[in-house]
């Protein structure tokens, strides 16, 4: 099982430079684990692209339909005190945005504090670096921050 950050899931739903890698990882290991708030982050990314003209209305609708199907296949780390506590600690230790700290905090809760041997998939370089420093193996690429 691999913990997927939002940045690694969006390319499954919207064609972009990282789509091929995300699809390859999904084929290789179909057990997708996400944080409880990931669906909302994906919807935000799709809406942002649609508003900015990077996605047509039809493509945005297709992405939302794809998300609805994907939600039925993934497992979630639910919002909890351990996730919040992990995220709070991570914000002191790493240069992360709140949502990224929650993503990594959820992954640490899943790993029960022992991430060695577990994988974290993201296209966010800053988050990938923090995940590696916390002990995760990372599947990472480069994606510009928005």
Largest sheet: 5 strands, parallel
Proportion of strand residues: 5-15%
Strand arrangement within the widest β-sheet reads 3-2-1-4-5
Shape, per Cα inertia axes: globular
Structure summary, number of beta strands: 5
Number of domains: 1
What is the number of helices?
Answer: 7
Give the end-to-end Cα distance, rounded to a whole number of Å. Answer: 28 Å
User: Which blocks of ≥5 consecutive residues have pLDDT under 50?
Assistant: none
CATH class: Alpha Beta
The CATH homologous superfamily is named: 5'-nuclease
CA-based gyration radius: 15 Å
The pLDDT mean sits at 95
| Helix proportion | 55-70%
CATH topology: Rossmann fold
What sequence of helices (H) and strands (E) makes up the elements? EHHEHHEHHEHE
Note the quaternary state here.
single chain
Q: TL;DR?
A:
This protein has helices spanning 6-13, 19-28, 38-52, 57-71, 81-93, 98-110, 125-134, and strands at residues 2-4, 32-35, 75-77, 119-122, 137-140. With 146 residues, the chain is of the alpha/beta class.
Give structural notes:
The protein has helices at 6-13, 19-28, 38-52, 57-71, 81-93, 98-110, 125-134, and strands spanning 2-4, 32-35, 75-77, 119-122, 137-140. It starts with a strand and ends in a 6-residue tail after the last strand. Helix 7 links the parallel strand 4 and strand 5. It contains seven helices and five strands. The chain has one domain (2-140): 5'-nuclease (Rossmann fold, 3-Layer(aba) Sandwich). It has a five-stranded parallel β-sheet with strand order 3-2-1-4-5. With 146 residues, the chain is of the alpha/beta class.
């Amino acid at each position: 099982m691999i913990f997927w950050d939002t940045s690694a899931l969006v390319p499954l739903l919207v064609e972009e430079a990282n789509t091929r890698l995300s699809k390859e990882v999904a084929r290789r290991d179909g057990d997708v684990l996400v944080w409880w708030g990931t669906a909302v982050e994906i919807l935000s990314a799709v809406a942002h692209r649609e508003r900015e003209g990077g996605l047509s209305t039809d493509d945005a609708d297709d992405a939302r339909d794809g998300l609805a199907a994907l939600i039925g296949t993934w497992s979630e780390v639910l919002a909890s005190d351990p996730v919040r506590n992990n995220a709070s600690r991570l914000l002191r230790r790493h240069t992360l945005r709140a949502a990224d700290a929650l993503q990594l905090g959820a992954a640490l809760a899943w790993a029960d504090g022992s991430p060695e041997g577990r994988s974290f998939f993201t296209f966010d370089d800053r988050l990938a670096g923090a995940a590696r420093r916390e002990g995760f193996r990372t599947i990472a690429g480069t994606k510009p921050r928005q």
